[in-house]
Design brief:
Number of helices of chain A: 12
Number of strands of chain B: 15
Mean pLDDT of chain A: 88
Helix content of chain B: 40-55%
Low-confidence stretches of chain A: 288-298
Distance between the termini of chain B: 84 Å
Distance between the termini of chain A: 40 Å
Oligomer: heterodimer
Largest sheet of chain B: 7 strands, mixed
Strand content of chain A: under 5%
Radius of gyration of chain B: 23 Å
Order of helices and strands of chain A: HHHHEEEHHHHEHHHH
Order of helices and strands of chain B: HEHEHEHEEHEHEHEHEHEHHHEEEEE
Number of strands of chain A: 4
Shape of chain A: globular
Radius of gyration of chain A: 19 Å
Helix content of chain A: over 70%
C-alpha cells in the first residue's frame, strides 16, 4: 500500500501538470471554439524563460515565474492576433493548423537562440523527502501538486461562482445571446486567452522543475497530451480536464510501475479510446453543445 | 512494339551518354584531388534524437583534421573531410555510406556513430572494399567486422566489466537494480552484461527496469528501485537521460550507489544532474581532467575551438582521424584503399583515448586499460577505488 501511495504521488505530480495544460485548452476552446495548438509551445517558452532568468539573473522561483508569465502572456497575445484571429471564422481546422505552426515556430526559435541540448532548470524550490506513516514522498512533488491543485480550485471557483465566470460561461454557450445581454464577449476572450497563457507559463516552470531538464521539443508532446485530455474530458468541461488530466498521469505512472513489460503508451491510449467509445462526447461533455459547435473540429 | 523498342534504344543511348559524362567528371575530380588532397568521409547523426553524440563526434573529427593540417597535413597533402548527416536514420546511413564507398576518391569512411546504423553499413564496407572506422557505436557486433572495418570505441561489455569488478572490490553490494533504455541496441546489450556480471558477483537483481530515450519523467521507475531497496543501481543510459534521472532520484528519496556505463561520461551529466550525480562512478577511455600530454593537449585544443570541455565521444572522433593519419604516414604518399586497409590492421595508436591496436586481424580495438572516474565536487575525477 505504501508503494501504491508513492506511485500515486508520482502520478499526481505528472497528472496535475497535464490537467493544467488541458484547462488552458478548455479556456480557449470554451470561449473561442478554437483548438490552440500553440499552448504546448507556450508551456516550453515559459520553462525556457524561467531557465534563462535563473541562469542569468538569479534562482528566485517567484521572479523566474513572474517573468515567464509576462513573456508567455505577450507571446500568447501575439499568437492570438497573428495566428488565430485572421482565420478563426474560415473553418474549424484552420486555427488549429496556424497555432500548430506557431508552436513549431517557438520550438525553432528556442533551438536557434539557444540550442537543442537539454537545459537544467535550477530555481529555489523545496527538495528532500518527508516520511508519513511509512510513505516516503518528495517535497518537490508535493509542492508541485499543491500549486497545481490550488490553481485548479481557484479557476473552478472563479468560473462557477463569480460574475466574470458566469459571463465566461455565457460567452462559451452562446456568444450572440451573451452580447445581447451586454456581456463584452471580446473582453471575455482576451481574459480567457491571457489566463490560458499564464497557466501555460506556470505549467512550464513546474514541468521544468519536475523533469529537471527541458528541451525545445517538449511542446508537441504536451500539446498532444493536452488535446487528448480535452477531448476525453468533454471539450468544454473544466472538471473533465482536471480529472482526466490527473487520471492520465496516474495511468502512465501505474503502467510503468505495474506493467513494465507492456508498451505504456499503447496501454494508456487503449483505455482512453474505450472511454470515448462508451461516451463519444467525453466523460464530462454535453452531446448537444459538442454537436452544435465543436463537433466539426473533432 | 517497334515504336516502344525505338524508344527504349533512345533511352539507353541517352542514359549511357549521361553516365559517360558523369564518369568523365568523376575521373577528373579524382585525379585533381589525388595530387592535392587526402580525402575522407564521415557519417554522423547530428540531427535526430541522438544528435548530441553525432555532434560531439563530428567536432572531434573536425578538430583532428584541423590539427593535422596545421602540422603540415599528410605527407604534405591537405587532409579534407566531407561530412554527411544520417539523421539517426538507418536507411539514410546506408544511402550515405553507399555514396562514399562507391567513390574511390574517399580513402576511408568514418562510419555512422549509432550502433544500429554502423552495423548496417559493416557488410557494405567489406563488399565495396572501403575502409570504415567505427566511432561511438559500442554495442556488441552481431555481424563479422570483416577485413575492412575497425572500431575505435571500447565495446560496452569491456567498460561494464571494468566497472563492476572494480566496484565489487570497494563496496559490499547485496541487492542491485538495473536500468536501461529499451529502445537502443547499445543499452540493451549493456544491460545484458550488467545482468551477467551481477550474477557472477552473487548479487540479487532486486529490480530490473527500463525507460525510453524520449522519456522525461522517471519517477515511477525510480520509486520501483527505491521500493526494491537496492544498494546499487547499474545503469546504461546516455547523459541527457541519466542527468535528469539522477536529479529525480533524489526527489523520490532513492539513495543508492549509481554505476553508469560509457554514456554517463559527458559533462552534460553534471550540468543536468546537479547534486544528484555526486558520487556516481563510470569508466572511460578519456576524461577532460586527464593529465597525460596527449589528452591534455587535445582538451586544450578542443576548449579553444568550441568553448566547452570535450566528451569521450569527441575524443573517439579525434582518434578515428588520427588512426587513419598514422596508417597513411607509413605509406609514403602512395595510398589507395587496399594499402590503407593493410596499414590500419598493423597500426598501434597512442591516442587521446589511450593506446589501442587491432591484433591478429581483430576489427575491434584492444585496449590496455580504461580509467574509472567518479563525480566529486561537480567534476569527473579519477576514482582510486575508495568508497
Amino acid at each position: 500500500v505504501t508503494y501504491l501511495l508513492q506511485q500515486l504521488v508520482n502520478g499526481l505530480a505528472l497528472g496535475t501538470t497535464y490537467a493544467l495544460i488541458a484547462i488552458s485548452f478548455v479556456l480557449v476552446f470554451g470561449v473561442m471554439r478554437v483548438l490552440n495548438a500553440a499552448l504546448g509551445g507556450l508551456v516550453v517558452l515559459g520553462a525556457y524563460t524561467a531557465w534563462f532568468v535563473s541562469d542569468r539573473i538569479g534562482s528566485n522561483l517567484l521572479l523566474a515565474m513572474a517573468i515567464a508569465i509576462v513573456v508567455v502572456i505577450v507571446a500568447g497575445a501575439i499568437i492570438e492576433r497573428v495566428a488565430i484571429a485572421p482565420v478563426r471564422n474560415r473553418n474549424a481546422l484552420a486555427p488549429f493548423l496556424t497555432t500548430l505552426g506557431a508552436s513549431m515556430f517557438i520550438e525553432g526559435l528556442l533551438r536557434t537562440v539557444f540550442d537543442a541540448q537539454p537545459k537544467a532548470l535550477a530555481v529555489d524550490f523545496p527538495s528532500g523527502v518527508i516520511r508519513v506513516a511509512g510513505v516516503t514522498v518528495g517535497l518537490r512533488q508535493l509542492t508541485i501538486i499543491g500549486i497545481a491543485l490550488t490553481l485548479m480550485l481557484g479557476i473552478g471557483y472563479v468560473v462557477s461562482r463569480t460574475k466574470g465566470g458566469r459571463q465566461l460561461r455565457a460567452v462559451a454557450e452562446n456568444p450572440e445571446m451573451a452580447m445581447s445581454l451586454a456581456v463584452d464577449a471580446r473582453r471575455i476572450r482576451v481574459i480567457a486567452v491571457t489566463v490560458a497563457s499564464a497557466l501555460a507559463a506556470i505549467t512550464g516552470v513546474l514541468l521544468g522543475i519536475s523533469f529537471g531538464a527541458i528541451t525545445p521539443t517538449l511542446g508537441l508532446g504536451l500539446t498532444l497530451k493536452g488535446l487528448i485530455v480535452l477531448i476525453v474530458g468533454g471539450m468544454t468541461s473544466f472538471r473533465g480536464a482536471a480529472i482526466v488530466g490527473m487520471a492520465l498521469g496516474i495511468m502512465e505512472v501505474f503502467a510503468t510501475a505495474f506493467a513494465p513489460s507492456l508498451p505504456r503508451d499503447a496501454l494508456v491510449y487503449l483505455v482512453l479510446i474505450a472511454v470515448l467509445l462508451a461516451r463519444p462526447a467525453g466523460l464530462f461533455g454535453r452531446r448537444v453543445a459538442l454537436a452544435q459547435q465543436g463537433g466539426g473540429v473533432v | 512494339v517497334r515504336k516502344g523498342y525505338r524508344g527504349l534504344v533512345f533511352t539507353v543511348v541517352a542514359a549511357s551518354g549521361i553516365a559517360l559524362t558523369g564518369c568523365g567528371e568523376e575521373a577528373s575530380s579524382t585525379s585533381s584531388s589525388e595530387t592535392t588532397d587526402v580525402k575522407l568521409a564521415a557519417i554522423t547523426a547530428v540531427t535526430g534524437p541522438f544528435g548530441a553524440f553525432g555532434e560531439a563526434i563530428k567536432q572531434g573529427v573536425d578538430l583532428a583534421v584541423k590539427d593535422v593540417n596545421k602540422d603540415g597535413g599528410v605527407d604534405g597533402k591537405d587532409l579534407v573531410i566531407e561530412h554527411a548527416d544520417d539523421a539517426s536514420n538507418k536507411a539514410e546511413a546506408i544511402a550515405q555510406f553507399r555514396r562514399f564507398a562507391s567513390d574511390d576518391s574517399f580513402l576511408a569512411v568514418i562510419g555512422p556513430n549509432l550502433s544500429s546504423n554502423a552495423l548496417a553499413t559493416t557488410p557494405l564496407a567489406n563488399q565495396f572494399k572501403a575502409p570504415m572506422i567505427v566511432t561511438g557505436a559500442l554495442a556488441p557486433w552481431s555481424v563479422p567486422f570483416g577485413d575492412w572495418v575497425f572500431r575505435v570505441g571500447p565495446e560496452t561489455s569491456t567498460t561494464v566489466d571494468a566497472l563492476v569488478s572494480q566496484a565489487a572490490d570497494s563496496f559490499d553490494f547485496d541487492r542491485v537494480g538495473i536500468v536501461h533504455a529499451s529502445d537502443t541496441d547499445q543499452s540493451v546489450a549493456s544491460a545484458d552484461v550488467f545482468r551477467k556480471q551481477a550474477k557472477d558477483m552473487g548479487y540479487t537483481v532486486a529490480a530490473d527496469v527500463a525507460f525510453q530515450t524520449s522519456d522525461t519523467d522517471y519517477s515511477a521507475m525510480l520509486t520501483q528501485l527505491k521500493e526494491a531497496d537496492v544498494d546499487a543501481v547499474f545503469a546504461s543510459a546516455v547523459a541527457v537521460n541519466a542527468g535528469p534521472m539522477l536529479a529525480q532520484a533524489k526527489t523520490v528519496g532513492l539513495d543508492a550507489q549509481w554505476i553508469g556505463d560509457g554514456g554517463f561520461l559527458n559533462p552534460q551529466l553534471i550540468e543536468l544532474g546537479g547534486e544528484g550525480v555526486e558520487g556516481v562512478i563510470t569508466a572511460t577511455t578519456y576524461y577532460p581532467g586527464a593529465t597525460d600530454s596527449k589528452s591534455a593537449a587535445f582538451t586544450k585544443s578542443y576548449v579553444d575551438e568550441y568553448g566547452s570541455e570535450p566528451s569521450q565521444n569527441s575524443a573517439i572522433g579525434y582518434d578515428s582521424v588520427m588512426m587513419i593519419v598514422d596508417a597513411l604516414e607509413g605509406l609514403d604518399g602512395d595510398a589507395d584503399r587496399a594499402a590503407l586497409r593493410k596499414a590500419l590492421a598493423d597500426v598501434k595508436v597512442d591516442g587521446v583515448t589511450g593506446t589501442f591496436s587491432f591484433p591478429d586481424g581483430s576489427g575491434d580495438s584492444v585496449r590496455e586499460s580504461q580509467t574509472l572516474v567518479r563525480v566529486a565536487g561537480g567534476t569527473f575525477k579519477v576514482w582510486d577505488g575508495k568508497r
